[in-house]
Amino acid sequence: MSLSVTNTRTGRKEPFRPMADPVTMYVCGMTPKDRPHLGHAFMFVHMDVIRRYLEYRGYGVRHVQNFTDIDDKIIDRAEAAGRDPLDWAREHTEAYFQVMDRLRVRRAQEFPRVTENIAAIIDDVQELIDAGHAYAASTGVYFDVTTFEDYGELSGRTEEDGSAGARVEVDEAKRNPRDWALWKLDAAGRIGWDSPWGRGRPGWHIECSTMIRRALGDRIDIHGGGADLTFPHHENEIAQAEAATNRRPFVSYWVHTGLVLTEGEKMAHSLGNFTTAADVLTDVPPDVLRLYLLSVHYRSSLQFSAAALEQTRTGYDRLLSVMRARGQGADSSGASSQHDMRAETAAARAGFEAAMDDDFNAPRAIGALFEFGRTINRLAPQAAAADVRAAQDVFEELLRVVGVELHAPEDAAGGADPYIDLLVRVRQKLREAKQWELADEIRDDLAAHGVVLEDKPGATVWRRG
């Protein structure tokens, strides 16, 4: 099965055929006006899995992700706190790296910032004016939506009021309510740059178009972001880029993630209903949070639930138990057990790849790994030690493809494992000597400390419950 990707622009699942190697991938990054919340973590973790799987499949990936480090909302929040807006943006950009590094979101090869691309943005605005796609007005420079006949193809929305096209209120200086700002004049503003049209700041949408073209070229393979960016942001990016270059499509595959919801409402800084990823990580290990965020397909929305997050912790413990399974050694295992373990390992890899090839279906792929883990635990007592270790290696390898690594709880630090093994061996000796009461006492004491024993033919395995 070849890899297929759901393309928002066509609304269809399409075979993945990149233009060249490496695959060019741009992800809309944060506007760092506050600390990243779970909605940000959801999008960036899923985009990270897409990159990881492409690399697992042998593709090179050129990954670029921006920071919109100047914006009206950044300025408003910084001024309300008595802070410099650029310092405010830098502080929250660093907060992004701190939490995403903990979640093992791989860093892009390049992180362009708006403030570093002002000259290029001005050039691109002038290019659109010269091509007849933009005009200067008393309040700034605007894209003329009537000059781009395919406008609305991405989102299916073609008739919207002026507020849909920009992050500003309806402006009477515009020719059409759907036109949006490429350059916003603000001569008295604390933050601004000189331009041929007057001092001001870039409009939101032109920023990404410019940074993509400078970092990756006029056409790219994958453009990722949250579903809430489909309109107007990504719709406007298409119009700007294709109008300027006359090259189509600007993006081969538009990939949009769902939203994290709080009581049915989008989690957002602007609504004040957000839970920061850093706050969750004070109570939950990064791998558990990552597994939780991957519990739904990237195009679905996730209703945040503390109870479901806690259930994910239990699931993670089940994954850990797989790495404690031990074979009996080649001398004591039959050829049939060896064949079964090897066949199940091959089948697990095939099942994982089939799920991920189907539009990066991480929940289904992870489900296949849980099933593989149960199989390892079931077959391990009769299998050769080398085959068990090989299966565990594949188990860990495929988990790393979705960015999950297995670590014992920090409070245990793995130090208790040898003592648990010793108690399990002592219990087995007691059972062989028919001292059932003492054997049961060890089992019950271990259970009281969260260690569950499973007596299987020829061996006892344990896991943390």
Key attributes of the depicted protein:
elongated; alpha/beta; four-stranded antiparallel β-sheet; Four Helix Bundle (Hemerythrin (Met), subunit A); four-stranded parallel β-sheet; 465 residues
Strand content: 5-15%
Low-confidence stretches: 161-168
* Secondary structure: helix percent: 40-55%
The level 1 CATH classification of the largest domain is: Alpha Beta
CATH topology of the largest domain: Rossmann fold
Cα-atom radius of gyration: 27 Å
Task: Give the end-to-end Cα distance, rounded to a whole number of Å.
Answer: 37 Å
Secondary structure category = alpha/beta
**SSE pattern:** EEEHEHHHEEEEHEHEEEHHEHHHHHHEE
Broad shape: elongated
Give me the side-by-side strand order of the main sheet.
Answer: 4-3-9-10
CATH superfamily of the largest domain: HUPs
Question: What would you say about this model in short?
Answer:
This protein is α/β, with parallel strands linked by helices and 465 residues long.
